[in-house]
Amino acid sequence: MAESAACPAFQLGRPRYDQGSFLGRLRHFIDIIDPSTLFVSEKRLKESIKLLDDYNHGTLPPGVSDLQLWEAQKIKQAIIHPDTGEKIFMPFRMSGYVPFGTPIVIGLLLPNQTVVSTIIWQWLNQSHNACVNYANRNATKPTPTSKFLQGYVGAVTSAVSIAVGLNVLIQKANKLSPATRMIIQRLVPFPAVGCDSCRATADCCCPSTALCAWLPSPSPCLWPSVCSHRCLRYSISCLMNFLCC
């Protein structure tokens, strides 16, 4: 009851939380990555879509609260692509990034990795990122498939090169003690992922303004664009790396 009383008036297509404050933007992002939306049934999804359609056409049944409308919008935005109107494959939804990405992050941080295992885990990580990026792309602006492929190849090449190169250098550093060498090797995923983040941000061509939890945006994205997905994705990735280390 308390949450319902504090719930703001529903606005279709607008964020539920105040985007002028850090806390509001943070709560907005938490809503986006909420894994509970992965377990929404097909029946509830259709009910949520119908509820929003009824609101849009002014035929909303009596007794529907603002909280119900916000929840319906959250479910629809988590599952349905706003441009194509199609369901996003579960592992590539933003709400699925943490549960489906965590095993890959753990693999990246496994000790005593060989060159082959390093390549495999970096490739899996970048492949997952590329799939999430494509599934949540800004479909209002057609982008050639070749551009996505170029970005994917560049991401895999840069991440693998940095990770393998640093591992080889560390193994050849005879002056380092085994304990120091192990600690440094555990940190190798950071520059590999961070460098690709910088490369991806530089390559971004999305026309809309990315919404950041740290800085307010004069024109926030109502739906997280490919830009804000990328920013959010790497923020989550770095956080998981930090927690696992």
From TrEMBL:
Compartments reported by the entry: Mitochondrion membrane
Molecular function per GO: citrate transmembrane transporter activity; monoatomic ion transmembrane transporter activity
Entry GO CC: mitochondrial inner membrane
GO biological process terms on file: amino acid transport; mitochondrial transmembrane transport
Topology versus the membrane: Multi-pass membrane protein
Key words, A-Z: Amino-acid transport, Membrane, Mitochondrion, Transmembrane, Transmembrane helix, Transport
Transmembrane segment boundaries: 97-124, 149-170
Protein name according to UniProt: Sideroflexin 5b
Organism of origin: Seriola lalandi dorsalis
